[in-house]
Amino acid sequence: LLLRWRRRRALWRKVEEAQERQERSLVRMERAAQRFREQHPSVKVASILSLPLPELSKKLRDGSLPPDHVFYAYVSKALQIATETNCITEFLQESETQVRKAKLMEKHGLLYGVPVSIKDSIDCQGHDSTLGFIKNLNKPAAEDSVVVQVLKRQGAIPFVKTNVPQSLISYDCKNLIFGQTRNPLMYTRTPGGSSGGEGALVGGGGSILGIGTDVGGSLRFPAAFCGICAIKPTGKRISKRGIMSGVVGQKAVAAAVGPLAKDVESLALCLRALLSEDMFSLDSTVPPLPFNEEVYSSTKPLRIGYYETDFFTMPSPAMRRAVRETKQLLEEAGHTLVPFELTNVDYVIFNYCVRGMFADGGSSFVRKFNGEMEKGGVGLFFQLAKAPQWLKTLLSWISKPFVPRLSSIIRSMKENTVDEVWSLHHEIEDFCHQFIAQWKKLNLDVMLCPMLGPALGIGYPAKLSVAVSYTMLYNALDFPAGVVPVTLASDEDEEQLKGYKGYYQDWWDRTLAKAFRGSVGMPVAVQCVALPWQEELCLRFMKEVETL
């Protein structure tokens, strides 16, 4: 008992030190911003913050806006949003040196002088990538991740790291070290996750461009919940070197790195900068595919598949309306919309996603929590992963008549043999080819899909792991998928929620109905999807949706 008490005490000391470091970071930001304001009282901060990224970067490159003016405007705004939402874990102090150097440098690089926020799990030299785990504190990265190196070569200035949920396997944003991040639009709502700190900071206007990761919707949830745009590219389009992962080594569900920003043009600018010779030379496993301007700027009418539901997670009234209204606007603009029938999404979620991510029965996932004081946000998966196989089998059998979805999740978390894992990977490949065949039979360019929303109340994502079906499908398929906010939840949507039953009418469906409630005025997005490696077409479609 004494040993355990001492261990807990040592852990708490590490947590307190990290929290003090976070506090010092914010104080540093405040002092830096104040010092700049005193030295440059005539700088119009509000007009700098109102510039969209393409315009801002143009002014930075042509010299009409000095990089330090932009940098300290964003430091000041980021500090305000961090105070309101608790989204920043660390100020990258070296960014101030970078700004001073930028003033003396040639103005090259597509992102010259642009301050960029970075998700906690993306390595920045000299800083921790914690994933919300105490054991990862005081282990600074030896070098920048490839994506951060490329950003710097393109002139960008990474200036803060942002909060994540413990382990990243969650679409809320809370851990024992840095606490809960709140949605900047409504503090009782989650900002989404796992790139939740990015969603809150960019959504609140404290960062003009953020970089996150996505293994089940971790870019798309925060963007949708915070009313901004994001794109999850094909898994290997952008380098993942130097990026910490929630479940290391699994190949069933593709993770990806991507940007979050206020508008689609900003995402395109970021991809132009990242898909450069810099990245291809730093990581030769990334296909050397530069950004295709011709595809992105094309104006030819599109043939668009669409669906309103995946028949697994019943869409909220606002989600359904978002797809219908967007479909109508696209048709009026001269595009062709074709119904797309989704089948067996339950099988995909349980047998490909859950089974694929926990193919070892969850033992490597459980090991990540060794020596930690909290297993927040992943309670169900953690308990199931810890259970012996005989108990999983028994629980799956007992729960099948009453809660079939729980039974399927338990069954999917069994330990697989190597042969079974290989068979699973082969099955996922087959499924992908069948999906593409259905897509090509309809002669589609892109697909319009629902996106979970509006933002759920804080704490609800931990109880609603099943609601990732709309996003995770495209990690299993490894298709590029972006989100664009298109409407706001209305009083009528709220009224219609009273009749929300769900497809299974189980505890999860009842909980989801509660989680959606009280969101009038919150943004609702749609998902825009393209075939693998067609990020530019995906962005072109997103731009069309955004414009309409």
From TrEMBL:
The active site is at 119 (charge relay system), 194 (charge relay system), 218 (acyl-ester intermediate). The lineage of its organism: Eukaryota, Metazoa, Chordata, Craniata, Vertebrata. It holds the Pfam family Amidase. It catalyses: N-(15Z-tetracosenoyl)-ethanolamine + H2O = (15Z)-tetracosenoate + ethanolamine; N-(9Z-octadecenoyl) ethanolamine + H2O = ethanolamine + (9Z)-octadecenoate; (9Z)-octadecenamide + H2O = (9Z)-octadecenoate + NH4(+); (11Z,14Z)-eicosadienamide + H2O = (11Z,14Z)-eicosadienoate + NH4(+). Keywords: Hydrolase, Lipid degradation, Lipid metabolism, Phosphoprotein. It comes from Panurus biarmicus (Bearded tit). Gene3D superfamilies: Amidase signature (AS) domain. Substrate binds at residues 168, 194, 215-218. This is Fatty-acid amide hydrolase 1.
